[in-house]
Write a structure and sequence with these properties.
Strand content: 15-25%
Number of domains: 1
CATH superfamily: Response regulator
Shape: globular
Distance between the termini: 13 Å
Largest sheet: 4 strands, parallel
Structural class: alpha/beta
CATH class: Alpha Beta
CATH architecture: 3-Layer(aba) Sandwich
CATH topology: Rossmann fold
């Protein structure tokens, strides 16, 4: 299964999710950001590639819909509702990610 995690700048939350879930249960995981200054900016290629997309906040879902609405019509997109309060590999962030993603995937 191909999983995409999306946050704003692709610096803390989505790269943490990519690191902790990649390779588990055969998952292929990538991460990207929605903002202009993102480390890796989300593209049509990311959306087309992903089987499931997790966004960190409602605003990320809206930005994806604004830019990729047609491509998202057959995609499962889930808002994890995780605020931008954490740094890369923060233990609390890891615990929250595992708990919220476990509702949708085997982790």
């Amino acid at each position: 299964m191909k999983i995409l995690f999306v946050c704003s700048k692709n610096r803390w939350r989505s790269p943490t999710a990519e690191k902790i879930f990649h390779g588990k249960h055969g998952y292929d995981v990538r991460s990207a950001g929605t903002e202009k200054g993102a480390r890796i900016k989300v593209t049509q290629g990311h959306i087309g590639w992903a089987d499931i997309i997790f966004v960190m906040e409602k605003k990320h879902l809206q930005r994806l819909k604004d830019t990729f609405s047609i491509m998202l019509s057959d995609k499962k997109v889930i808002n994890l509702d995780i605020p931008d309060d954490y740094v890369f590999m923060d233990e609390e962030l890891i615990d929250i990610l595992k708990a919220r993603v476990s509702d949708y995937l085997d982790v």
